[in-house]
Amino acid sequence: MIRPTFEAFEVATIKPTDPDYKGGRFITMQSTHVFAAKNYTVKALVVAAYNLNPRAVSGGPAWFDSDRYDIVAKAPNEVRPNLDEQMSMLRKLLAERFGLSIHREQKELSIYALTVAKNGPKLKASTEPPDAPAALVNRIFPGRALLPARNATMEQFASMMQRAVLDRPVVDRTGLSGKYDFDLEWMPDEVQFGGQVPAGTPEAQQRPDLFAAIQQLGLRLDATKGPVEVLVINQVQRPTAN
């Protein structure tokens, strides 16, 4: 069966987030056809759509990183779009409804390099079907973060860490090309998850930090500097009326 193409959402509603809203934010497919983003700044939408760390997005007016929006959109076709297809449609939506125009530049930035530790990786080859989508969804609790990763490459792991967890870009330098199943559990700190980390309990102090937890997988996460492709905002505007 040939998979259909997902060029654009069929329809999308964009509204400012209720100023009294006290919940978190999410971006997900709520069903086969319904895509939703809740409580997102336009910068955060760009970060998600282009799979970047926030530091790798430059420019834009002040409201670009302060005004928050809710999006509900309908995806085409009879199958659920995967993450890449969702983000492709989101990029088109940003161009059409927010007038987003960009260009890219190379810059030297502070980064984290993901590498293999001295004694080699301790990763298990995935037992998922080869064509199964990667699953990399963090679960955050007071003083505790969980990442059950399934069918994930190191490139996908690095991308998720830079987009959702860490405060700087992450570059995969492991040289590993397989797909793996692994579980991470750690005590998050105040700079992870954009600072949106619930306060922990004294028992949380017994958990390793992220860097120690990653070493348990036979990997390392080292702070360094390196060239990064940065997305520069040429133009963006508040969304057109629905």
In whole angstroms, the N-to-C terminal distance is 35 Å
Biggest sheet statistics:
5 strands, antiparallel
Strand portion, in percent?
Answer: 35-45%
Backbone shape: globular
Report the strand count. Answer: 13
What is the gyration radius calculated from CA atoms?
19 Å
What's the helix-strand series? EEEHEEHEEEEEHEEHE
What count of helical segments does DSSP give? 4
> Helicity level, as a percent range?
10-25%
Class by alpha and beta content: alpha+beta
Residue-averaged pLDDT, rounded? 91
Count of folded domains: 2
Uncertain segments of ≥5 residues (pLDDT<50)? none
Please name the defining characteristics of this protein.
242 residues; globular; 5-stranded antiparallel sheet; 4-stranded antiparallel sheet
Can you put this structure into words, describing what you see?
With 242 residues, this protein is α+β, with helices and mostly antiparallel strands. It folds into two domains: 92 residues, no CATH class; 123 residues, no CATH class. It contains four helices and 13 strands. The strands form three sheets. Strands 7, 8, 9, 10 and 12 form a five-stranded antiparallel sheet that branches. Helix 1 crosses helix 2. The longest helix has 15 residues. The chain is globular. It starts with 10 loop residues before the first strand and ends in a 7-residue tail after the last strand. The model has no long low-confidence stretch (mean pLDDT 91).
